[in-house]
Amino acid sequence: MTYIVTDNCIACKYTDCVEVCPVDCFYEGENMLVIHPDECIDCGVCEPECPADAIRPDTEPGMETWVEFNRKYSEMWPVIITKKDPLPEAEDRDGETGKLEKYFSEAAGEGG
Asked: Are 90 and 14 in contact (CB under 8 A)?
């Protein structure tokens, strides 16, 4: 099992999760985070830290696509280990549906 980030993170990018991760497996895009599924040790400490409920175990139904999504972008984006402010629109976008199609950016974040 591994944990992955879903589209709930897009346009929010809360980073509460990165500071509790013992193996630094979070990677930062312009408007979301991902977890490298091969680096995650399945400890689960990140899941309750996410205000947007965007971190899920890969054992939930329909998560296969998100595992590959997280793998792809974690190999392209820089690692992030330090908490940052969420995106300005985070509160307005939290829980919104269709965020992948509406807002997702493949651009890398700054990391750090």
From this structure: yes
Task: Report the predicted TM-score, pTM, of the whole model to 2 decimal places.
Answer: 0.96
Assign domain 3-82 to a CATH class. Answer: alpha beta
Of 60, 52, 22, 53, the C-alpha closest to 39 is: 22
Domain boundaries, the chain: 3-82
Percent helix, strand, coil in the chain, to 5, is: 25, 15, 65
Can you name the residues that pair with 4 across neighbouring β-strands? 56
Tens of pLDDT, residues 29-56: 999 999 999 999 999 999 999 999 999 9
CA distance 8 to 91: 12
- Count how many Cα atoms sit within 13 Å of the Cα of residue 84 in the half-sphere of its side chain: 19
Which residue positions in the chain have pLDDT lower than 70?
none
Closest Cα to residue 69, out of 42, 104, 34? 34
Residue 62: phi and psi, rounded to 5, are 80, 10
